[in-house]
Amino acid sequence: MLILGLDPGLGTTGWGIVRAEGNRLRHVANGKLVTDTKAPLPRRLAHLDAMLAALIADHAPDAAAVEEVFVNSNAQSTLKLGQARGVVLCAAARSGIDVGEYKPSTIKKAVVGTGAAEKAQVHAMVARLLPGVKIDGPDAGDALAVAICHAHHLASARRMF
Amino acid sequence: MLILGLDPGLGTTGWGIVRAEGNRLRHVANGKLVTDTKAPLPRRLAHLDAMLAALIADHAPDAAAVEEVFVNSNAQSTLKLGQARGVVLCAAARSGIDVGEYKPSTIKKAVVGTGAAEKAQVHAMVARLLPGVKIDGPDAGDALAVAICHAHHLASARRMF
What we know:
2 copies of one chain form a homodimer.
Chain A: E1 2-7, E2 12-21, E3 24-34, H1 41-59, E4 63-67, H2 75-94, E5 99-102, H3 104-112, H4 119-129, H5 138-160
Parallel strand pairs in A: 1-4, 4-5
Antiparallel strand pairs in A: 1-2, 2-3
Helix pairs in contact in A: 1-2, 3-5
């Protein structure tokens, strides 16, 4: 099963794909989708959408997952993030893929074992869980973390039902 | 020239289309796009996206416009609105249409003549400026108002250059 993790952002959206087979995880690919800060907002969103559509068409993931948003005290940042996040969720759902959402603490717990882990620990554990991975920056690392979290939850759900 | 005004919202997105010929305005159509409050967020966004794509394909507008967001003090509402707004801006831009953004006060000034107008005045003036229009609720009324505002600004720009 191919799982696509996404870390939405208007400037940079991180993505990471893992293959889950039973309890085994394998890294497939990761990277970031970057939009031109000088382009008008609607163009940037459409560019992000086109890159997501191409990514999903290339890899044909079976499931997707994103982090639940930590709502910022800066309302303008929240709006900006919301707009990018809307496009990301929409692009996944439009391709017929279900999208899991996880709290930051749930992702940290799944990857590191504690919900209070530091970002650096999360990325170090991602690298350990996916031998040979070369992580394309922090956004791609976050995306791989949410993909791993989703893989664990899908595996637990299968054991339960 | 066909101008599509949009009033984005996750639950209800209002839309309105006017035809601008020189200084004359004519109502073409208006309505609302409603998503199922019981569906998961990504599905709702993909449904909104599909309805927008169909609307744009049906009417082939030349330009689109939305209101600049009044950022809410409630961060969760801002995020929700941002997600819907991202899908709306993206759908327009993906169709190759430029999207104008206007402050609420600019829209009121264009429609009523004062930036401090009440909502009810705006809708009453929309009905007066577009004889025979039947407005499909307040969101469609807001969408027609931003379409009228965009028509005025495009007409002024033509006179200036």
